[in-house]
Amino acid sequence: MNPLAVAILVFLSVAVAPEALADEGPELVVPELMAGGILTADPVVFADPDPSSQPEDEPLPSEEEAKEAEEEALAGPEVEPEKYWFEKIIEDWHGEVRMGVDFYSGTSDRTRIRGGFNINKKYDGHKTTLRTNYSFARTSGEGESENRLVNSILQDWGTGDTKFSGVFANATGELDRFKQYEYRLNLSAGARYQVVKDEKTDALLRLGLSASREFEGPRDEWIPEGAFFLNASHKISERQKLAASVDYFPELERPSQYRLNARATWDYKLDDETGLSLR
Q: For the chain, how far is it from start to end, CA to CA, in angstroms?
């Protein structure tokens, strides 16, 4: 074949091939074969990234900021200072305030006002209770017929989850204008016995020894006694609760001589938010 004709055919095939391949979809482009058997390809050029997407350089901290950060790292985590002893004593108290009026009508009319408060604090399995009760009454034709103040402090120390679950100490002072003594003081101590305790019922018995003295009275001396305290409560419903307590103090030398205090209450909660109850 004529060499000139061969050269024309090769030129035409190189010029027409790209258009024909474009109609057939994407295809791998093979680099041209250079003399000496070396494959070469055009260099790849990447576009410059968007300058707005690059994070700005953060300013270096000042000397004061660097010093503060170093001091914080050396100091470690912040630890709350331990509370003073008097702060521990006055916090976390809970209780109630009571106020009521009684009216009696019959041969004579009698009006009685009574009130008091009861506060307690629980801590580390122990409990401290302070109680004050005051009552005052007037009877028609007689005038003042009752004027009595009773203060008590009870300390319970828990020792475990058994039936005999702790020990107690109690002090009670009583002022009564219509008694032969000026002031009566009772000190008692002993052990606790948990009769029953569940979600609705709680019964606790305290038993031990006590001593009483009626100052400025006929027997102005310390009298040894036994001490039995029974406290029980039962939750009838979310709003109703029954409670009762009995205190019994027999003299050790003359058991037939004793003092007995008993009380029972029924509470109906009127308002959940304020804790107001009817007793």
A: 129
